[in-house]
Amino acid sequence: MMKGGRNSEMLLQAADTIESLTRRTTSAEQSYQQQQQQAARNLELRQIAEAAADKLVAEAEALRVQLADEAMQAETERARLEERVRQLSAQSDDAEARLAKVTAELDGLRESLDSDTAVTVPIEALRLARTQFDYLAEGFAKSGDVISLTICEIGGCAIDQALAAEKAAANADGST
């Protein structure tokens, strides 16, 4: 009997061990399934993150290309503007030189004239010269040559004054 009692104890212990192992196995299987589900979810999230990262990298590269294009366009525009400034500066220098030359000639002519010297020019010649000054001024205005435009306007005003003085003199002579 003793031996039977010992066998039954060992059987009970074996049954307890089997139950304990069964619970642990069930718990391990559940834990394993949860870990598999978590791993699957992590994999899914990683794929989503990688896709988002790839998209951001592509967008960043597109922005780099766009920035490079815009920088190139800006540099081209800056170079074009610098060239235009050089051209305008050269035109300005040329116009100033021509103005200085004309001013010197005008000063020379003024010095050569005595206060008693007078020049007689037909009225039609003055009107024709005025028309030519207007035509030249219009051309200089279109080309942006301000100095030459100003010279033409000054010449035109001088002719207008001469014509007005002639008209006043004619009116004064005719009214007496």
Pairing-aware structural class of the strands and helices?
mainly alpha
Strand content: under 5%
What's the main sheet like? none
Q: What's the rounded overall pLDDT mean? A: 89
Specify the helix fraction band: over 70%
Radius of gyration: 52 Å
Give a count of the beta strands, DSSP E runs of length 2 or more. Answer: 0
SSE ordering: HHH
Shape: rod-shaped
Give the uncertain stretches in residue-range form. none
> In whole angstroms, how far apart are the ends?
174 Å
Structure overview:
The protein is mostly helical and 176 residues long. The protein is built from three helices and no strands. The longest helix has 111 residues. The model has no long low-confidence stretch (mean pLDDT 89).
List its traits:
about 180 residues; 3 helices; about 0% strand; mainly alpha
Give me a quick take on this structure.
This protein has 176 residues and is mostly helical. Helix content is 92%, strand content 0%. The mean pLDDT is 89.
Itemize the secondary structure elements and their pairings.
Elements: H1 2-112, H2 123-143, H3 146-175
Helix pairs in contact: 1-3, 2-3
